[in-house]
């Protein structure tokens, strides 16, 4: 992006986004995957964005968390923030990271972008679910309920895709 276009883009964001959101969108932390991760989760948002989270866990503590998204700057900022928040936390502590905490940590989001924080929180919870399941650990009832909701939403998206295109949803 050339400097003039970038400057206009940033100026357009000012007033709509906090400096923290702009910083995480322009300089995201923890981007990429973890080759031999302990947990992986992904969610597709209603806007079409996908956000994935990878976790490394040692003695029930998240030692590393990374993300990738094909989404907008707000999705990037939310993915960056949720991974920063998860690092160093126990699994139980990380399970308590909510979309509201992500929004608050970013200094707020415009109402039309709140779904990006839900996407990040859900991708983290799916990564934790995957970690617990792979390691044959007890899955808390609330996490199981959240996982079922995410799966149901994913199935609805796949059905809509099939209805609209006549094709199977790409894996």
User: What is the percent of helical residues?
Assistant: 40-55%
Taking the sheet with the most strands, its summary is: 3 strands, antiparallel
Strand arrangement across the biggest beta sheet = 1-2-3
Mean pLDDT: 91
In words, what does this structure look like?
There is one protein chain. With 171 residues, the protein is of the alpha+beta class. The chain has helices at 3-13, 19-26, 73-86, 91-95, 99-105, 114-134, 141-165, and strands spanning 39-44, 50-58, 61-69. Helix 3 (73-86) crosses helix 6 (114-134), helix 5 packs across helix 6 (114-134) and helix 6 (114-134) crosses helix 7.
In short:
It contains seven helices and three strands, in the order ααβββααααα. With 171 residues, the protein is of the alpha+beta class. Strand 1 and strand 2 form a beta hairpin.
